[in-house]
Amino acid sequence: SQQGEEDPQALSIQEGENATMNCSYKTSINNLQWYRQNSGRGLVHLILIRSNEREKHSGRLRVTLDTSKKSSSLLITASRAADTASYFCATVSSNDYKLSFGAGTTVTVRA
Amino acid sequence: GAGVSQSPSNKVTEKGKDVELRCDPISGHTALYWYRQSLGQGLEFLIYFQGNSAPDKSGLPSDRFSAERTGGSVSTLTIQRTQQEDSAVYLCASSWPWTDNYGYTFGSGTRLTVV
To answer: Which of B104, B108, B110 has the highest number of chain A CBs within 10 A, making it the mutation to test binding with A?
Structure first.
């Protein structure tokens, strides 16, 4: 079974707009990570946020974490056509350090 | 090597045959995962190796699936008597221990097609 649930399942935006996607999870975590996947093959690690952190930035990416609500959000600012991909959140359990993925959000950026 | 290497990149096999999928993690990475991803779906956890600890096999879907990791490095995922529902992309990922600071590095996957 999957730990995380992403919302929305799919997102279509115009180039230059911001894209926001959310992730909810169920169990206690050590950290939460976001990954990008192009063309259904290997995933690329984007950003990691620890359970004691609330916000983190990396370039055009901004991640928030609310452990009281067991949720996280990923914001991509000033989107580009190259950002078109599937985005997955993944949690590392604080119990067994297992990495579990959500179902993903498919983002399409229109030129 | 510079990244996680998986082989073969594509495998077509007949139903009932056995297949072996290989993963070469980044040197020094003690944590290694296998996931399976069906078309348009999320990642399904299969098995997790962490150093010399006993692997977490709780995600293996049936006893036709097995995996080993020799010398704490290369891992092989074996599927016996393949079925059509085994068709998917099989992804391997590795990392330093405990991933407090690091994410996982994924290979490009093996696309398995059972005909």
So the answer is: B104
